[in-house]
Amino acid sequence: MSDTPRSEPVLLVDDDAGVRTLTFNRPEALNAFNQELWYAAADALEDAAADDHVRCVLVTGNGRAFSAGQDLGEMADPTVFEGQEPGYQRYMPVLESFPKPIVAAVNGVGVGIGLTMLLHCDIVLMSDQARLKVPFISLGVTTEASASLLMPATMGWQRAAEVLFTEPWIGADQAVADGIALRAVPHDRLLDEARALAGHIGGLPLGPLLATKALMQAGRADAVAAARTREVAEFEHLVRAMAG
Question: Which of 4, 21, 29, 197 is the most exposed place for a label (fewest CB within 10 A)?
Fold first, then answer.
């Protein structure tokens, strides 16, 4: 991980007609999540939740990746987290309880959290060039972002087991078949289609949007939070075992 100061923020934020677009902006690191990006994304979602002018959030990535997952170089440096809550634990409760619709435009590779965060988005469009992967077991760890609950619920038990245990790359058409994405879109039309969809939602009345999403979340909110808690405990146990 470079210590060279960045000239641009790690998260780009743009508001337009009821839609807040959040663009992960670490293209040199394939938009891997470091502490700065975790916190920036959590703060941006909290701001969007509190802003009545925002009715929908659109999430995408800059460059050739949506997100390559957690920044493994930073994770290996325990001093990064001194005096600060780990960014993953800051971000996930905000994402999983976000009260407004989230549209994801998956512009490129999504690995680890680059896939599992999609399970918390309401509508996912994928570039026909994008691919997804969850390499948890081969890295010596286990699921994150409540994927232990949400992947079987979304994909079916056997397909989720295949994906978690054999770690294949998942192309856009297969992601649609698996229920991770709504549809695959030609790469050069992805953002236009995602913005049109988010813009339609952004033009709807806020009260009914909030009520409808709250009803959709209510049936699974406690289970999602509990799954994440179990995963964090097991993840930390496995990391300690690897360390020795």
Answer: 4
